[in-house]
Amino acid sequence: MNVLDHRAHVSLPRDPQLPGLGSLLDAGRLAKLLPGLFPDDQVTRCHPLYVRYKPETNAVAAWVVELADQPGSWIIHGKAHSLEHFATACEKAEASRWLEPEIGRPFCAVPDQGLLLFSFPNDLALSGLRLATNPKKMQRALYAHVTSHPESEWRLSDRRMVITPIRFKPEKRAVLRIDTKAVNRRSGEKQVFRIYARVSNNPQAQQVAELMKLLHGELVGHPYLRTPPSIAYLAESGVTLVPDAGGQELIADQAGVKTAGRALAALHDLKSANVPPREFDSIVGAALDNTGTMSNLMPELAGEIKELSESLQSMAENLNGASPTLVHGDFHPEQLLVRGEEIILLDFDRSYAGDPGADLGNYCAHLIYRKLTCQGSDPYELIPLFAEEYVQAGGARPDPVALAFWTALGLLNLAPAPFRSLDPNWPQLTLGLLAACRRELACI
Asked: Which element (helix H / strand E) includes 195?
């Protein structure tokens, strides 16, 4: 008998336009389809990694799978199409050149449900995985771009190279950790060499890589803030090579949120970063787009969600924006590492020039969400510590109305997060996020 993930009984939406949605998002039903990918193995466990859902359009989900006769685990992802668009998608998949996975098949189709299933590293939109998961190709890329270990002085083993997926959002991005053995050709010195490959189909990926390099140089002499550089951007594959930053995740306790406040103030103080501005309306609009998805997931709350959306829109029209700075764009506790006295800030994929309140509010929203998922302390004790440390470190004192607005917007952005992770308590967590959003608006 299969021992499937404990999240097998998750409340799922009904979408007549996507007949395969239930199979894609339910561990038990998905396992019955996976012999199409793994014909010789029995699936014993499915664990969700990531879900992206556009009602009546498509859905994408990544899973970690364990097999009865194979050690370790395997990543697969699937995409649910409407039957109207499935034939075109299937033709594209059949015409593509696939990588042969270590076991099983590159992809399979489930026509009656409009589903396509893929074995990692195969992905229709992330062609860079062909390079990033191939030890020989990665060895050549490292020799070409890593100046600390030139081929004339070091041998980087491709046979001992271990490539581990760290993050994977199908059709969007992947982060791979690459570990191998480095041997000095003259002295025989041996090192463990580690680097990260970020694979993206983002058309701005090269600009992000350039920003990372610029920020790293700007912060070389800073007392405590650091950012990892990009070693190289490989335009033909959409792969960015990033060195191992080291460090440990910064815990979001009382001391940790103060550290986060100092780091954010230092980031907002940087003047030389040339990042494009982002229109305020587009920021608000992106968050409000979530209300359509949430209304589809929880139709009984459609009226309440509409009122919440209208309140935020009205506030946005009357908000006095702060002077634009470099905005991280996704500032939250998991983006910060500590290494001795240094604070390392990661992931600038969403950076832009805009209102610094967006970063402050997003961090506060994540503190609230962490408490809802029983991972953090009382956010309403931590938020004042975070904001005051930000000010003491040189950041402009946030206007209370603006901070409440940006926090509410951050909470709305997070509203689909519990569903995207297929948390069995996602309806309750979503209700908690919406209630916290209303609480912020009521403070204004």
From this structure: strand 190-200
